Amino acid sequence: MSDQWIFLNGEFVRKEDAKISVYDHGFLYGDGIFEGIRVYNGNIFRMKEHMDRLYESGRSILLNMPYSQKELTELVIKTVEKNGLRDAYIRLVVSRGPGDLGLDPYKCPNANVVIIVEPLAIFPKQLYETGIDIVTVPTRRNRPDVLSPKVKSLNYLNNILVKIEAHLANVSEALMLNDQGYVAEGSADNVFIYKKGKLLTPPGYIGALEGITRNAIIDIAKELGYDVAEEPFTRHDVYTAEEVFLTGTAAEVIAVVKVDGRVIGDGVPGEHTSHLLKQFRKKVIEEGEKVNLPDENLHVS
Ligand code: PMP
């Protein structure tokens, strides 16, 4: 039996016992929302921003949240404490809940709330040293007026198709463009380019999720005096950038050294990317929502 405790609809259950109905509309239709959050040294990074994004997603799709934002925030903290992990990845899922086989969400009165806390599957250290190769793919980003990428919904097929195309091209990640050909984001991360003293990332309206890591990097870059802007750019700008990097809760900041066969800069992680990663890692252990953990070295799983 695993030592991992899952929060499921009001109680803590063992991983093996954490089960929900096959009539759940999250399962049947991808009807629901989620967040991926990270705990660094007993501090939950940008907890409020993650919870704000979750509740905004819920409001946007008229999902009845069974807990207030404050209550759910406390439940997330409790789940981290229950699992006794100082460094962890939190997956918070709120699905529409069980209904019948029709689409109608009004027949799903009880949302399912799941909080999973796991030890971090850290990205291989070597990738931070070498950087990664990526490609752009034919799959376009959902248009914001169709299914807004700002809603962090359980419907990730758009992103999954991108991941499949990345695999088919023998790389681990890919960039998607929006319907006008502007660069939007990766399958599960945001993109930045650095060129001629300017740091750019696509604005939300292009079709990028407003990533918490992305926003933290914008803050850090501003504090460091970078000329940083949210501005649309094309593949040409990526190919000719001096540095390219991706950001996300799991990946943090990862250098991209080749895009569609074009070597970026010198083909190794650039000084600005490395500097921003260093500053980011400094920030994550300094700030955050404190979790009460009894013992510095206690790791349950
Ligand atoms: N874009 C998409 C589509 C994502 O799924 C994620 C991961 N949540 C990101 C960007 C990065 O966002 P964050 O920094 O909040 O993890």
Automatic annotation (TrEMBL):
Co-factor(s): pyridoxal 5'-phosphate
Top-level taxon of the source organism: Bacteria
Entry-linked PROSITE patterns: AA_TRANSFER_CLASS_4
Pathway involvement of the protein, from the record: Amino-acid biosynthesis; L-valine biosynthesis; L-valine from pyruvate: step 4/4; Amino-acid biosynthesis; L-leucine biosynthesis; L-leucine from 3-methyl-2-oxobutanoate: step 4/4; Amino-acid biosynthesis; L-isoleucine biosynthesis; L-isoleucine from 2-oxobutanoate: step 4/4
InterPro entries cross-referenced by the UniProt entry: Aminotrans_IV (IPR001544), Aminotrans_IV_CS (IPR018300), Aminotransferase-like (IPR036038), B_amino_transI (IPR005785), BCAT-like_C (IPR043132), BCAT-like_N (IPR043131), Class-IV_PLP-Dep_Aminotrnsfr (IPR050571)
Reaction(s) the record says it catalyses: L-valine + 2-oxoglutarate = 3-methyl-2-oxobutanoate + L-glutamate; L-isoleucine + 2-oxoglutarate = (S)-3-methyl-2-oxopentanoate + L-glutamate; L-leucine + 2-oxoglutarate = 4-methyl-2-oxopentanoate + L-glutamate
Record keywords: Amino-acid biosynthesis, Aminotransferase, Branched-chain amino acid biosynthesis, Pyridoxal phosphate, Transferase
GO biological process assignments: isoleucine biosynthetic process; L-leucine biosynthetic process; L-valine biosynthetic process
E.C. number(s) listed in UniProt: 2.6.1.42
GO cellular component, one term: cytosol
Pfam families on file: Aminotran_4 (PF01063)
Keyword Nucleotidyltransferase included in the entry's annotation: no
Record GO terms (molecular function): branched-chain-amino-acid transaminase activity
Function: Acts on leucine, isoleucine and valine.
Name of the protein in question: Branched-chain-amino-acid aminotransferase
Family that this chain belongs to: Belongs to the class-IV pyridoxal-phosphate-dependent aminotransferase family.
Coiled-coil intervals: none
